[in-house]
Structure formats: C-alpha cells, structure tokens
TrEMBL record:
One of its GO terms (molecular function) is nucleic acid binding. It comes from the Bacteria. InterPro entries: Integrase_cat-core, RNaseH-like_sf, RNaseH_sf, Transposase-like_Mu_C, Transposase_Mu_C. GO terms for biological process: DNA integration. Residues 289-513 form the Integrase catalytic domain. This is Putative transposase.
C-alpha cells in the first residue's frame, strides 16, 4: 500500500539535532480503513493541538487504539500517529470536542492542489514551491502514462510549461528544465510523499551560550582578519580560563557562519574598514541626471594605470597616471592627460582639453572661423580629494590678504566640489576606471591590479611564459593611441543599467548638446575663445631678478631691461604648456616686459676645441655682451658730462651773482690785512701771519 502524504505542524519542539526525516516505514494495524492521503501527527502535535497528555497518547498506541508508523530520524527512531485513526477512536467514544479539533485540523490541509497556501509540513511548513513541484510531477505522471515515447513527451511538456501553458505554476517555479523535472519525478514517484519537497524553514536555536558569544564576536570583527581556526583556538583558551565547557568546532563554526550572515554590516566594518562599509553596506544616494545637462558638472580623478610605460624623461618603464575629466550627465570621457605622477600640470592640461573639447560642439553657435578655437566652460568641477587637486594653483588662497591672485577655477568661474575621502560611490568616474581595466588587459605590458592578479610571465621562475609571451613596456604614444580607440569604443556601448539604460554615452551626450543649442540662454557666459582661455590659465609666481636674468623652472629667462633692476622682486606669469617666454610684472602687477628663455650653452674652449659654429656663437655672445657694456658706458658718460655741465653752469651762476653784488656797492675793508700792511708785512709770504711776526721779532 502506498504511503500517504506526510504533514506536521509548525512550532513543534523537536530538539536541536532533529532536523529532517530520511526514511519512512508504514505499519498499519488491521481493521483500520485508512485513506491513501492520510495525515500523520507526532506525539508533541497531539499534545499541542488536541490537548491529550503524552502518557495518554503512548497508552493508546500501546493498546492499538491509534495507528502508528515507525520513522527513522537523525537522532534515532521514532513514530507518528495516523490522525484519521485518532478521529475514529474519539468518534466511537462520542468525544465531539476532540473530533471537532481533528476535523478542523484535517480541513486545513485537505486540499493538496496548487492553490492551497500555508500547508504545514514535516519541519513546520510547506511553501508554494513544494506544492508546485508536486503538481508538476502529477501532471507529468499522467502524460507519461499516455505517451508512446517518454523522452519526447517530457521535452514537449517542459517546452509547453515554459511557454505559459500553466501560468500559476510558472509564476511560482519560473522556467524549468528537463533535468530538473526528471529529478523531481524520480524523487517522488515511488511513494508520492510531498515531504520530499519540504523546505527547511524551522528556525534553529542558538547552540552556544551568551558568554561564549561575548568572547567569539569581538574576535570575529578584528581588523587583522584572523582565520576562523585561529579564532577558535584563542576562544577555547579563553573558555578554559573562565571554566566554560568547550563544544565541537562544528558547533562554533555554525554559530560564526550564522552570526556573520545576520550581521554582515558589523562584519564588514570591523574586518574591512569604513571604505568597504561605505561601498558595500551604506545605501547610495541616487542622483537625478535629468536635472543637469552636458558640461554642467565634470568629474575629475586620477588613476594609476596597470600597464608598464616607458617614461620619456628617464627612459625607464613605470606605471603612468591618467588624469580624466568625465561628464556627469552622459558618463562620457572628456579631456585627459597622461603623466608620470598626478601633479598640477597634468590636471591643468586635462582641464584645458575638456573645455576645448566641449567647445567644439558649440562652434556653429559661437561663429568661430578656426576649428577648435572655442571653449565651453563647465559650471561645476567635482574633484578628487587628492593633494594635487587641492593645490594652491587651483583653489587659490582662502585669505586673500596673502595674495590678490585667485585660483584657476576662480578665474574661469568654475565652482569646485570635493569628493568625500575614500568614498568611491561619490565619484561616478571610479566605476569607469574599473571598466578601463578591459583596455589594460588587452596590452602586453599589463601588470595586474594586485600581486595575486599578476600575469603568469611576471611570476618568479615562469620561464616558459616569459619566452612565449611578450611583456615589453610600451611607449606613451602607443598608450595614448590605445586609449583614444577605447574611448571611441566605450562611447558607442549602451549603458547596462542606471537611469539611461539602453542608451550609449554618445547618444545621451548629443541629445543634451542639441537641447542646450535650442536654449541660447544656457550658453550665456559659457563660451570662451582659445586666446582668452590661454590668458586666464596663465599661472604666476614671484621671482627675483639676478645678473643672469630670472631663474624659473630650471631655465634662465632674460631681457635687456633686466640689468637696471637687478635685485628687484617681480611677478612672473607663464603658460604651463609653453616655456619659451614669460611675462614679467612689478609687485603692483604692472607690465614691465617679456623675457625669452636663455637656454644657449657655449663651448668652454670654442677656438681650440670647438667647431666654427661654436666659435660663431661665442663671438656673437661676446659681441652682444660688449654692445650692452658699451651702451651702458655711453649712458654713464652722458650722465657724467651732464653733471659736469651742470657744475660749470653752477659756477658761472655763482660768479655772476658775486659780480652783480660787488657792482652794487664798495666792498668792505679787511681790517687785518690793513694792519699787516701798516706793519710792513707781506701776507703772501707766510700762510700764518702770526708766525711771520714772531720770526720778525
């Protein structure tokens, strides 16, 4: 006789080790006309649902009043009672109270169709999935009985099922496969026991004490990330000190897995830090990109490329830094620059490229003749929190008492926003840098993102791979060309998710550009010529003029006007992309002159060891030097002669004033001279008249 459907109630106290039944053996007593779909109950269910004591149930079973069956469990053997036999027994006794309870119980699970919800099962619950699988197997059983070829019949049934022939079942199970149907049918066809599909939903009680948990949990969230085996070793030592009975490793591991699954936020924060907690746990703030247009917000960041590139300055291979400005609206890469390190020059160059690139799409509106002569200034620059982005050149100075020169973004009218440190989701460009890894892996000089991810030819003793695969560093020009091609390829790829799913960055970009052109007021104050952009992006520094000129960025800059103001402090304005000339201003920012780079070096022994060209260069330098000297001497002589003329003119004026004075009246008589004359002494002989009188006696 086939077994009936095995069901039991949720909430029964089974104990820790009793999780599921693995074998059922039916033993019906004689003279009990049971139905095939009989419902079975446990002793505990009889106590809880029917109000019968445990001892009374055991006594009825021993006396044969109830039909029982022996079942094998994880913890040993037990038995279950046919609920129908219990009803028959109390019906004969006339105990209508218990009969009504049994009828209500049977009524709750009388229908085993798909529409029945809340069925109770062996471990407390039969969900819709188990009932749907049972129904599929019933349908399949009928089809197999009528089919000539079982394999073809099952394949047709699966295709029909997946195409919606049974919508309720499809809604619960989703699409099924032939292999899955074979497995379900094979599991249930022998006894048609629905318990085969029961889901383990009975909650398990904690198997360790609170004191043990208080010791284990702090060890789990250690930022050193100890292994589970190490945690258990240390925990057991602590248990022994506190007199706690030690359980098996399996028990502790089960607790650790369960606690980690239910406290993944604490696990992530403790073991992996705040950055990982922000990236994996904290909810993102979703921004509405429809509120802005192309060029309103540009996001900038630096990324160290995982490719070995030859440094053009040193000739040595190294990982270069990519500075990228990224359009927030369309996720379209804009201006970029590649340099050995993230510094001011690369950031400024990438910003300049971004402004000119955006301007190309509005040249027809600006009516510029030369292509690339128009720039489009962003409203906001959303920047990384790195040192280079926070440099004085970009931010200006908070206290303008120290300087009258604002930062570059201030000159261009661009507002700046800085991303939260170590908070990747606040910068959308971070995700694009991860996408860039596809390009990096295409190149032969790929280094991997970490030690574990290095290519095999970079590992030690991998001589075979080193012979077969090329890992030669590439040039910076080759890297730039590859990056340009990848950006073009990326621009045509459709977004896989997000607000613009199904649209490519190029499509979103051009749609927004056309919208801006249709609203001319959006362009007011945003367009700028290349010349204006270059002037506004001039940087400045303070320098002192020396005899050789102005020492700046490793070179001397000279102008013939400098010798007259040697030692003066001046302001130097320079173009970071052109080092041939600088502009010199006084401390009040008044223009003085321009100075050219003096990068000529002369042969130390040109006449004896040098070439004719070396001699000619030296002679030309000496000629200019002598010419400057002659000009300065000539000016000096002129000044001296002017001074002499002024002295002669002053003397003539003095004599003229004296003569004019004498002509007006008789000069005064010198009494001392008259006295000398009366004494017969010639005053011209002696310089001292008194000495002459003494000698005379």
């Amino acid at each position: 006789m086939k077994s009936g459907l095995h069901l039991s109630l949720k909430g029964v106290n089974y104990g820790v080790n009793q999780q599921k039944k693995v074998e059922t053996e039916l033993k019906y007593l004689k003279n009990n006309d049971l139905q095939v779909s009989v419902k079975w109950m446990t002793v505990a269910e009889g106590v809880n649902r029917l109000g019968i004591t445990k001892m009374a149930i055991v006594k009825h079973c021993q006396q044969g009043h109830f039909v029982t069956r022996k079942v094998k469990m994880n913890g040993g053997f037990g038995y279950e009672i046919a609920l129908e036999s219990v009803f028959n027994y109390y019906n004969k006794l006339g105990d209508w109270d218990k009969c009504e309870k049994i009828l209500n119980w049977i009524k709750e699970s009388s229908d085993f169709g798909l529409g029945l919800k809340g069925q109770e099962g062996q471990n407390g619950f039969l969900d819709d999935t188990a009932l749907a699988k049972y129904q599929v197997c019933k349908l399949l059983d009928e089809i197999i009985l009528k089919a000539d070829k079982k394999t073809i019949a099952i394949e047709r049934f699966v295709n029909s099922f997946n195409n919606g022939s049974y919508p309720e079942l499809l809604n619960v199970l989703g699409k099924i496969s032939v292999r899955s149907v074979y497995r379900w049918y094979g599991d249930i066809k022998d006894n048609w026991d629905l318990s085969v599909f029961e889901r383990e939903m009975k909650p398990t009680a904690r198997t360790i004490s609170n004191k043990e948990a208080e010791i284990l949990i702090p060890m789990l969230i250690n930022p050193n990330r100890p292994l589970v085996s190490e945690i258990l070793k240390r925990a057991k030592e602590e248990f022994l000190k506190r007199g706690i009975t030690i359980k098996s490793d399996v028990t502790y591991r089960r607790f650790i897995e369960d606690w980690t699954r239910k406290n993944i936020d604490l696990w992530t924060l403790g073991r992996y830090g705040m950055k990982s907690f922000n990236d994996k746990i904290i909810k993102d703030i979703l921004r509405d990109k429809d509120r802005v247009e192309v060029g309103d917000i540009v996001v900038a960041d630096g990324h160290t490329l995982n490719v070995m590139v030859i440094n053009p300055l040193t000739g040595r291979p190294q990982r270069m830094t990519l500075i990228m400005f990224f359009d927030f609206k369309s996720s379209m890469p804009l201006g970029w620059e590649i340099m050995p390190t993230e510094n001011i020059l690369t950031i400024a160059s990438a910003l300049r490229r971004t402004i000119l690139l955006l301007g190309r799409f509005f040249e027809d509106v600006a009516h510029r003749k030369a292509q690339g002569d128009t720039g489009y200034i962003p409203k906001i620059a959303y920047l990384d929190n790195g040192r280079a982005f926070r440099a004085k050149y970009f931010r200006g100075i908070k206290d303008f008492k120290d300087s009258i020169v604002p930062g570059l973004f201030g000159k261009l009218g661009i507002e700046t926003m800085y991303a939260t440190p170590y908070h990747g989701q606040s910068k959308t460009i971070e995700r694009w840098f991860r996408t860039l890894g596809e390009m990096e892996r295409r190149l032969p000089a790929y280094t991997g993102t970490n030690i574990a991810g290095k290519p095999a030819m970079l590992m030690r003793n991998e001589k075979l791979h080193q012979r077969l695969f090329d890992n030669t560093p590439i040039t910076i020009d080759s890297l730039k060309a590859t990056l340009e091609e990848y950006v073009k390829e990326y621009a045509e790829q459709e977004h896989q998710d997000g607000q613009y799913k199904g649209l490519s960055p190029a499509e979103v970009f051009m749609h927004s550009v056309n919208k801006i052109k249709s609203e001319p007021e959006r362009l007011e104050g945003r367009l700028i010529s290349r010349q204006e952009l270059n002037y506004l992006m001039l940087s400045d520094e303070t320098r002192t003029i020396t005899k050789n000129g102005i020492r700046f960025r490793g070179n001397y800059y000279y102008n013939e006007e400098m010798p007259r103001i040697i030692g003066s402090k001046v302001i130097v304005k320079y173009d970071i992309w052109d080092d041939k000339e600088i502009i010199v201003l006084d401390e009040k920012e008044r223009y003085l002159f321009g100075a050219d780079k003096d990068d000529l070096r002369y042969h130390p022994a040109a006449r004896l060891l040098g070439t004719d060209e070396d001699v000619a260069m030296l002679q030309e330098a000496l000629r200019k030097k002598q010419q400057m000297k002659n000009e300065t001497v000539q000016i000096f002589k002129g000044l001296v002669e002017m001074r002499n003329n002024d002295v002669k003119e002053e003397k003539r004026e003095i004599i003229s004033r004296r003569d004019a004075k004498n002509a007006k009246g008789k000069p005064k008589i010198n009494a001392f001279k008259e006295y000398m004359k009366l004494c017969g002494i010639e005053p011209k002989i002696y310089s001292n008249p008194v000495e002459a009188l003494l000698k005379r006696g």
